[in-house]
Amino acid sequence: MTLHSPVIRATLAVLVLSLTACGKKPAEAPAPKAAVIESVDQKVSYGIGFNIGSGLARDRALAVDQAALFAGVSDGLAKAETRVKEADLEAAFQAMQQKMTAALAAEGEKQLAEGQAYLAQNKAKPGVTVTASGLQYELLATGTGAKPKETDTVKVHYHGMLTNGTVFDSSVQRGEPVEFPLTRVISGWTEALQLMSVGDKWKLTIPAGLAYGSQPKGDIPPNSVLIFEVELLGIQ
Hints:
The protein is of the alpha+beta class. The protein has helices at residues 6-15, 40-58, 66-77, 86-122, 171-174, 187-195; strands at 129-130, 136-141, 153-162, 167-170, 178-181, 201-206, 226-235. It has two domains: 6-103, no CATH class; 123-235, Chitinase A, domain 3 (Roll), CATH 3.10.50. Strands 1, 2, 3, 4, 5, 6 and 7 form a seven-stranded antiparallel β-sheet that branches.
C-alpha cells in the first residue's frame, strides 16, 4: 500500500502527517532561523504553516512532536524516502484515528450531561421562556418592528458563548453585524428569529439538538449547549 492509497489520503484529511508513532526516531530538528516573510511565496508559505499549526493545536487528542513534524515536512519537500515504513505509518494513523474517535465520544458524553444540567437550571430562572422544541430565551430589549419569515434574510448582531463563558464567535467583538438567510443557520436561530421583532435583543440558550448536535464545530465541543445574545437589526 502506498502513501497515496485511499486509506492514507482519508486519514491525512483528518490528522495531517505525523511521524511520532513508529519506526526510526527522526533526528532532532535544528532551531529554526528567524523567518523572512516578505514575498508572496513567503507569505503563502507562512499562511499554510500557520493554518496547519492552528488546526493541530485544536486537536487535544494529538500530541504533536514538532521535531518529527518538521522532519516529515522537510523530507516531503525534498522528495526523500519516508523514514517510517508505509505499513507502520498506516497502523499509526489508524491507531490515532481510534484514539481521536474515543476522545470525541467521551467529550460528547461529558458535554451532554453538563448541557442537560445547565438547561434544567436555566429554565427555572425568572423571565426564561421555553418553547416546544426546548429552545430557551429571555428578553433583554424590546423592539417594535416586523417579524421575519423563514424565507427572509436578516441582519443581526450576536455574541456566542459556551456554558462556561468561553466566547466562540461574536459579531459584536468584530464590530460588524452579519446578514444571512434564516434557512442557512442552526435550527435554534431559525426558530428564535421568527419570534423576534426588529429591535429585539434576546438571550438564547440553545440545546445541542437545535445547534450542532454531536458534531464538533471549530472550538465548539460535541453536544454543546450554546448561548447567544442576539439583536435583530433588520429584515433585508
